[in-house]
Design brief:
two-stranded antiparallel ribbon, mainly alpha
């Protein structure tokens, strides 16, 4: 199952608060990217509905950026409850979407692997040569979106069993 990015972001923020490890907007974006990649590796499908964009500082889900940009480089104080579209066109609040246990484990894996890294370190990691971000950002013409297939292939090789 895949989820609106804000739903996965909120789960990461809950982990941040429960462990008292701050998460900034940049760190959150890179953790979303990591969680999505882990899902490709473990389940063969994406975790996040939206596509990632290739921005200067790495992969970004634009609507999540806009929800948390007010915090700039400061820690995000808590989850956001915002309207999201579900399949079929209905609108629900993001807090009404429950993440199943299997997917919570993927989110936890991303958190555990990156929680002690800051946003800039994660940004530099996302810029590795031949990474999905690198391919999209440096393509001619430059691509706004990072190809899902590139993310899948990258994480299938990046994450060891």
């Amino acid at each position: 199952m895949s989820y609106p990015a804000i739903t996965v972001a909120n789960e990461l923020i809950k982990l941040s608060l429960s462990e008292e490890i701050p998460v900034t907007p940049m760190k959150l974006q890179k953790m979303l990217y990591l969680a999505n990649g882990i899902s490709y590796k473990r389940k063969g499908k994406k975790l996040i509905d939206e596509r990632f964009e290739a921005w200067d500082y790495g992969p970004v889900v634009e609507n999540v950026y806009h929800e948390f940009k007010e915090y700039r480089g400061d820690p995000i104080p808590g989850p956001k409850n915002v309207p999201v579209f579900k399949e079929g066109g209905s609108v629900v609040n993001s807090s009404a979407i429950n993440v199943n246990d299997e997917d919570l484990q993927l989110i936890r894996e991303a958190w555990d692997n990156a929680k002690n890294l800051d946003g800039l370190t994660l940004s530099k990691w996302s810029h590795n040569q031949n990474s999905p971000w690198d391919k999209a950002f440096h393509s001619q013409p430059k691509s706004v979106y990072i190809a899902d297939q590139d993310i899948r292939q990258y994480f299938e090789n990046f994450i060891k069993d």
